[in-house]
Amino acid sequence: MPFQSIEPRRLYRQIADQIRTLIGSGEFPAGSRLPSERDLAKQLGVSRPSVREALIALEVEGLVEVRIGSGIYALEQAGKPVAATAGAVEPVEAEAGPFELLRARYVIESECAALAAKTARKPQVQAIEAALDEMQGEMQGAQPPLGGDRLFHLRIAEATGNGALVAVVKMLWEERTGPLYQQLEEHYDSPALWNAALAEHRAVLKAIAARDSAAARAAMQRHLNHAYKRFNTGWDNLK
Questions:
Q1: Alpha-carbon radius of gyration of the chain
Q2: In the CATH scheme, what is the code of domain 99-234?
């Protein structure tokens, strides 16, 4: 038998493959509840965030439904994306999981904030502030402020004066607005979450405007650490 090419797979994809196979074989029939996130992590010998990423991927595929405070259930109509709409495009599988993405942003965007504090000119600081105003306006309109949120982070990258960093941040935000991250975020979305994020953003802006590189780095690190911790809260603890 000839050798077959080996495809590197993210851990969450390997976990999702195992669960998908068990659902397909009837081990978890439609309507049945899967083991808890904690039990799955223990049985598979992996972290709970990795299990959560796998379950979110399966939810996007339409294989499971996550019911906050109740559990994870196998769905009847496997293969049909949850919340699919007429003419919707099949979601593209993300290269990185949401928690991987947050860690990458922690490394890159904290340094962007530090560099922006050194290099930003007054119009660029004003552009960052305008992005926050846009974010706040979206929140007042009772909609997730994703446009203003994205613009805030891009304006900081642009203030570094480094085109390569701008390109990297844009790429990270393409993943940030992808189906896996959005599905995960949907389970945690609330006005309180966005109010906290807005306050964290203002702390970053304040440090950049003061040209305090260390404070800007620390403020961005706190912001992204808080996001990681929010999404790491167990589903059983949400209402």
A1: 20
A2: 1.20.120.530
DSSP letter string, 190-233: -HHHHHHHHHHHHHHHHHHHTT-HHHHHHHHHHHHHHHHHHHTS
Instruction: Tell how strand 64-67 and strand 71-74 pair up.
Output: antiparallel
Question: What is the tens place of the pLDDT at every residue in 25-68?
Answer: 889 999 999 999 889 999 889 988 899 999 999 999 999 998 88
Q: Could you tell me if 177 and 150 are in contact, meaning their C-beta atoms sit under 8 angstroms apart?
A: yes
What architecture (CATH level 2) is domain 11-74?
Answer: Orthogonal Bundle (1.10)
Q: What pLDDT, in 10s, does the model give residues 120-146? A: 999 999 999 999 999 999 998 877 899
Q: Where in the chain is the domain with CATH 1.20.120.530?
A: 99-234
For 80-102, the pLDDT digits (tens) are 444 443 333 343 455 678 999 99
d(CA 184, CA 177): 11
CA distance 154 to 101: 16
List the Cα angle 139/144/149 in 5-degree steps.
85
**Widest CA span of the chain, in angstroms?**
65
